[in-house]
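Why run this: before we spend reagent on co-expression, it is cheaper to look at a predicted model of the complex and decide which construct boundaries make sense. The entries below are exactly what would go into the expression plan.
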Amino acid sequence: MSGLRLARLVPEARAFVLTPEFVRGERAYDPDELAQWCDDADEDVDLEPFVASVEEVLASAEPGTAKVDALAAPKIHRALPISRRTAADPGIWRFLAVGVAPGLVRHRWPVRTLATTRRRFWAPGMRHDSNTIGRLWWIAELTRNGDDYGLTRSVLESSNLATLLFVRRIGHHRPIVAGFVRFFARADAPAVEPLVARFSAVASTCALDALDADTVVAILSDLAFAGR
Amino acid sequence: MAANRGTIALVPPGPEIDWVFDPLPPSRGRRGGEPAGHAFRHHIDAFVREVVQNANDQRLGDAEVHFRLRTVAGAALEDFLGALAWPTLEAHLRAAVKSPSGRAIADALSALQEHEELTLLQIEDRNTVGLVGDELEGESNFRALARDVLFSHKQDDTAGGSYGLGKSVLWTFSEFRTVVFHSVLSKHERGQVSPRLIGRAELGSHTLPNGDGFQGPGWFGRVVEDDRGRRAESVWGVAARQIAAKLGIDRRDEAGTGTSILVVGFRDPTTDEAQSITVLSEAFRSATVRHFWPALFGIPGRPLVVWVATPDGGSPVRMRDAPECEPFQQCYAQRADATDRLERPGDVVVREIPVEVPGLRPKGKAVRGSVRLCVRHAADAETRLQGHIALFRGPGMVVTYRDKRRIALAARPFHAVLACGLARAPEAPTEADRAIDAFLRAAEPPGHDAWHPTDNLRQRYQRGFRKAIDDLFRAVDKALREIVVPSPRHGAPGPDLLRRRFPVGRSGTPPRPEPPVFTIRDLEGRFGAGRWHFTGTISPENLPDGAKWRCTVRLFEVDADGKEVAPIPIETFETDPAAAAVHIDDGRATVDAGKHRSVLHFAGTSNPLPAGDRITVALEVEGHHG
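The model came back. Tokens follow.
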């Protein structure tokens, strides 16, 4: 696989490459087949480490679970040392999902409906049904501390929390994510969803940059237990 | 016949090069420091503005400005000081230490003794006019830059500066209040041979230990003594070249005509500690871009290149040296490629704002024209100059970035540019553009950092200049508000949505968005006495004749992403003029306005809210008709 480089898959390719056969995993593309739909990426990146880390994930994580996310995100992030500017280009994530690691997408999310799985190959963003690889890279980018991916793993192990946090602005701030992880680790933690929504409403009155994890835990405790 | 011939070399004595200070006049008037030094605030930005603007105004074609920072120490320092006739200058500097602004000079002298190192800034401009003009007579660049203090002698009427105070900034940034000029002239008077060299020190009045009193300013050059007294005049030709070489400001041939300015002991007077050359050079780069991006990367046909160099090397400044200004540059660059509305990040909307400037005194006619407002939907929300508007005219210097972040509640994030005068349509300027450029130039105070009524305006223009400026800014604010506030929703968007969902064919131009039916403005809200109080106006503007309309108003709590969390019921609601039918159902207010056609003001309050909750509330107003 040596010599495989990062590229961007142009949006016009959608109707041609996301065929039902491809989405269901009945066929794959080799990079030459995709070449007509590809442009150069902003950065020249050797994809060998990425391919290797995807193989490790496929070999070790139980399919269809949040464990895949927790294992894959740090590996994907380490294997793709790209700038945020490059990472903001949905084209590279389409290329990686469709052309390089379609198996990872289907390993994490067994195919139920074609429409949703298409989104997991194609749509930009950090929704649970956005491009699987781009979403994990960005969550790792937002939650790592240097080379320490502890928070990345712990937030992704709770699929529900990750799904709710990273579609909101509050998910863009590492101390806020850290506060949530710490709070929901307690034994008597209440239901996640209403509290995330409640916190986001309170957060609309704060400078998010100024919140540290302790404050976040304090606010969450207030919101959850004030009435008891 | 043998002739005895003896030969001796007849070398004319070299000109005496020294400092000569103006003696105190008989009146013994004294001054402390230089008058112009106090007229406007000084920091690196002001320095760069003035220096680059001077070069930009004096250009003969594609001008370049090179900033070079370096330090001299050791033997090189001794040679440098020797070439500058330091013993004479130092004597005057020591004497001036007692003058009001002498504290800084004293510090600089002791620092020089202690560290034996001197920071030098050289500013070299290329393809510019140079210091042309007679030594003592007339209006010329030479007299403007090196001799006079308060007069401006610029190339033409588009020039950026108009006070002549600009050059004072040079001396303010010299620890020793000393600047040397070395210039290759674009035209020569009789007997002049380029290059020309002269230095000037701007000290307060001072007295030497021998009792001789001096007014303050001193000159470095060829000492001349005649019936007009003793003075130092410009050094010319080979002698000038030699001194320039020793001072490290020689000009290479490719530099063409223009002036090299040496600021001796460069120091930002607003900082307490001396800054490193690297820090200074970065400050020069970003300040240059911040204030001159229109001249550097915007207005076509006025190429200006600015370099910044240190002993480690140099390069031209680039837009990325001031990333916070890139959105403004893109906004202006897209002035011909505008959209109708600001919808997506990167969209640019352009409006021509009509302007009328009064006639010149005594009997000039008023001129009607326009200036161009370009507004760009900000792509990323948090840059430092977001929500600002950059004002500039022909010379391509940003006069100021005005903060317009408070222009409206719920404004889209934006960057805006107001291109005036010759910058409005630089490809094809009109007579009106010229008149507006001249008017605004006269409206600039000495720092060139605003447009407001000035004495200059009052002297040159007939009545009405004050109103012209007020009207301009009011019209700009109004247009800006209309552009950045999201248009109210249409009452009946159905067919349009269907069209978009089922596009038929690909030919033809996309349908123009219809003008909004309702204009909703002045939405305000405040929290008091346990509830929300809100006001606003709605006016039907493009309703079909005879059509009835109604509007609904509701409040809801939003989260950090601006998404609705929960409704907040409205308790009271009234309109002015009072509408017959106001209902509050399910916490939202509905007004049946019937055929009412003028502005409808409304005001209301929410239900009381539990104390201690901190929330963000959105007010939604929706018009319906048909």
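The domain at 518-625 of chain B is CATH 2.60.40 (Immunoglobulin-like). The interface with chain A takes residues 557-562, 565-566, 614-616 of chain B (CB under 8 Å). Bring this page to Monday's planning discussion.
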